[in-house]
């Protein structure tokens, strides 16, 4: 077998303060810069941010990224 088996982890976070598409983009942009993150989907109407990563993320790093975007990790 020549292909590597990649396992990705999906984690859902709750973020307070997102109200629009710009908010979604700001949060997604900051979190996507974290090492190992392959995708981020933020939904302002629910406050949910779904992150797909190669390994579990450090919650402090996620919190810092959300803070940097101007929002609050619940």
SSE diagram, text form:
Blueprint: E1 9-16, H1 21-32, E2 37-43, E3 48-53, H2 59-69, E4 72-73
Antiparallel strand pairs: 1-3, 1-4, 2-3
Helix pairs in contact: 1-2
**Helical segment tally?**
2
Roughly what percent helix? 25-40%
Strand arrangement, largest sheet?
2-3-1-4
Element pattern in H and E? EHEEHE
Mean pLDDT across the residues is 93
Question: What percent strand?
Answer: 25-35%
Span of the ends, CA to CA: 43 Å
Report the major sheet: 4 strands, antiparallel
Structural class: alpha+beta
* Rg for CA atoms: 13 Å
Shape: globular
Low-confidence stretches: none
Tell how many strands the DSSP assignment holds: 4
What does this molecule look like?
- The chain has 74 residues and is an alpha+beta fold.
- Helix content is 31%, strand content 31%.
- The chain contains two helices and four strands; from the N terminus they run βαββαβ.
- The chain has helices spanning 21-32, 59-69; strands at 9-16, 37-43, 48-53, 72-73.
- Strands 2-3-1-4 form a four-stranded antiparallel sheet.
- Helix 1 (21-32) crosses helix 2 (59-69).
- It starts with 8 loop residues before the first strand and ends with a strand.
- The model has no long low-confidence stretch (mean pLDDT 93).
């Amino acid at each position: 077998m020549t292909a590597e088996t990649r396992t990705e982890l999906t984690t859902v976070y709750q973020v307070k303060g997102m109200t629009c598409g710009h908010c979604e983009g700001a949060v997604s942009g900051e979190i996507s810069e974290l090492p190992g993150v392959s995708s981020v989907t933020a939904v302002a109407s629910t406050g949910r941010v779904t992150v797909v990563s190669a390994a579990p993320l450090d919650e402090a790093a996620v919190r810092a990224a959300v803070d940097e975007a101007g929002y609050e990790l619940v």
